[in-house]
Structure formats: C-alpha cells, structure tokens
# Entry
Amino acid sequence: MTPSEAKLRILAEWRTWVGHQQSAVSHTTTEALAFFKEIEQNKPELLSFDSADKWEFVKSWLLNAGLIKP
# Structure
C-alpha cells in the first residue's frame, strides 16, 4: 500500500474509531497513540506502507487534518 492510500484509510478508520470513544471537543496525541497501537494489533494492513517510523506518519496525518491537537 502506498502512503497516500494508507493515509486515506487511516483517517477514515480514525473517524470511525473516535465515534466509539467518549465525545471530546479536541482529541489528543495520547488518544492518537492508543488508536495507532490498536491498528498495529488489529489492522496491521493499514500500516503496510514503507516507513521507518509509522507512528510519526500517522500522527502527522491526524495533526494536519485537524483531527488531533498538538
């Protein structure tokens, strides 16, 4: 999977994931890390793109999309 494909799928997955979490005005990096660990374990195919530090990619995608606060 390319990083572009992964980004689209991960952002969609985040929106689904936060829908199951308690409502919050702004989500945190800590919540994003919990999400990342969950997809690492349960949906590793979403992280099948080439990168030495996949967490940094996912965190930057969520930040740039305005889905988490710094």
The two ends are 27 Å apart (CA to CA). The chain has a mean pLDDT of 90. Helices lie at 3-19, 29-42, 54-64. Residues 3-64 form one domain.
